[in-house]
Design brief:
mainly beta; Immunoglobulin-like; six-stranded mixed β-sheet; four-stranded mixed β-sheet; 7% helix; 28% strand; globular; disordered N terminus
């Protein structure tokens, strides 16, 4: 417990609690990143067609840039990237953390982004291993199949990171026929 508390305090001190001030989203370099872990990836890689019918591939890169003090996935935080997937589609996630600060990924209800800690993923299999303690400078894969519609989030499961905005929106839709990806204020695009 002491180790977890110390990691939490280190994370809060180094990452900050508030959102990045306007105009400073990408202006600062985060030190110590192992950039080769995500070389060539862009925000568009968040959601791609899967290898099998009715599946998608999600690539989450924690600390992609300096936005939100590094607490972002592929450069987005506070739900500003929106992934929409039809109910029953398989979701294969590759999580990458190039940072020396521990991060993880977990699928939760959007309302739970206001909680300091989330014990279990909403959908079975929907989290990196040891999502409460996180991992540094590495990759992890996990898969889940959302069986109901709703407003969810792919969030960092390390305590207090989701509260600090380290999450993106994950919508599960009964009406959607194909997955879509919306980045910031841009219109949503179909993922085919």
């Amino acid at each position: 417990m002491l180790r977890l508390t110390l990691l939490f305090l280190l994370s809060v001190i180094s990452c900050g609690w508030s959102q990045t001030p306007p105009g400073h989203e990408h202006s600062t370099e985060i030190p110590g990143l192992k950039k080769e872990l995500f070389a060539g990836l862009t925000a568009e890689d968040l959601l791609k067609p899967g290898d099998t019918p009715k599946s998608v591939k999600v690539t989450l890169v924690a600390t992609f840039n300096a936005a939100n003090y590094g607490m972002n996935f592929n450069g987005y935080s506070h739900g500003k990237a929106v992934l929409t997937v039809p109910v029953g589609w398989k979701v294969d996630v590759t999580f990458i953390n190039p940072s020396p600060i521990p991060h993880s990924a977990i699928i939760i209800e959007q309302a739970d982004t206001k909680k300091l800690q989330i014990a279990e993923p909403y959908f079975e299999g929907g989290a990196t291993p040891k999502h409460l303690t996180g991992m540094t400078m590495g990759k992890a894969d996990f898969s889940f199949t959302p069986g109901e519609a709703g407003e969810f989030a792919l969030a960092c499961g390390f305590p207090a990171h989701a509260v600090a905005g380290h999450w993106i929106s994950f919508m599960v839709s009964e009406e959607a026929q194909v997955p879509t990806l919306q980045l910031g204020d841009q219109p949503a695009k179909e993922v085919k």
